[in-house]
Design a protein that fits this description.
With about 240 residues, the chain is of the alpha+beta class. It has helices at about 1-15, 165-180, 215-235, and strands spanning about 20-25, 40, 50-60, 85-95, 100-105, 110-115, 120-130, 135-145, 150-160, 190-195, 200-205. It has 3 helices and 11 strands; from the N terminus they run αβββββββββαββα. The N and C termini lie far apart (about 90 Å). One of its GO terms (biological process) is post-translational protein targeting to endoplasmic reticulum membrane.
């Protein structure tokens, strides 16, 4: 009876009981329809999109006291040194055969604690939607301290082929980028010009003011000759 009570106390007060919740988000994509949100929550994923899987891991309150102080080490009486309880979140293909993303959780004291004393932390993992069809993934939370404390959740979403309208938009955007004039090579190209606040920036699109404005003719000639000599030396190397 005492052993059974000890096991019950261990499970209620020490052993971590976790739960995973995953959602799929696509950020920064232009919509085909006016007024449609630029971020979709598990709704619209197109081929080529960068998909963010947000995994929220929650640990239930342990013990009878809410918001109790977390122990510095896991329960390991025979271990000579302290061993903190740590977690890692993984995003894998269905069945766990291929790991697609890993995030190490911060120490438990840095997790968000609600009024009941439950701890939660959210990890964001990204992957490319490379082909159309249903994607079946898994989110895992693995514990470094306790066996059989790991938890798993399914992550499913559909990837749609890009619509003709979307393809035309991307093609037009690529054409506009290709039609932009190349940066000028020659006078003023690649020269670092100091701003009035002392910072420097590269100006290759607009013609710079004469850096020797106000300099007398003799000094100007000497400076230009020195620059020409430097260019000749570079050409001989």
């Amino acid at each position: 009876a005492t052993e059974v009570a000890d096991v019950g106390a261990f499970l209620a007060c020490v052993f971590p009981r976790g739960a995973l919740e995953a959602r799929v988000v696509v950020q920064g994509e232009e919509s085909d329809d006016e007024g449609e949100s630029s971020a979709s929550d598990g709704a619209l994923v197109l081929v080529g999109d960068l998909v963010t899987v947000q995994v929220t891991f929650t640990l239930a309150t342990r013990g009878k006291e809410q918001r109790a102080e977390l122990p510095a080490s896991c329960h390991a009486p025979q271990l000579p040194q302290a061993k903190p309880e740590s977690w890692v979140v993984l995003l894998t293909a269905e069945g766990g055969g291929l790991v697609m993303g890993v995030k190490l959780a911060p120490p438990l004291r840095e997790w968000k604690m609600d009024a009941s004393g439950s701890l939660s932390w959210t990890a964001s993992l990204q992957l490319q939607a490379d082909k159309a069809g249903e994607r079946r993934l898994e989110a895992h939370a693995a514990c470094s301290a306790y066996c059989d404390a790991d938890v798993r959740a399914e992550v499913r979403f559909d990837v749609r082929a890009m619509s003709p309208k979307k393809e035309k938009k991307l093609a037009a955007k690529a054409a506009r980028e290709a039609a932009k004039p190349a940066k000028k090579f020659g006078h003023g190209a690649g020269i670092l010009v100091a701003d009035s606040d002392g910072s420097q920036e590269e100006d290759s699109d607009e013609e710079d003011e004469d850096p020797l404005a106000g300099v007398d003719a003799e000094t100007r000639t000497a400076v230009l000759q020195a620059q020409m000599e430097g260019l000749r030396c570079c050409g001989d190397c």
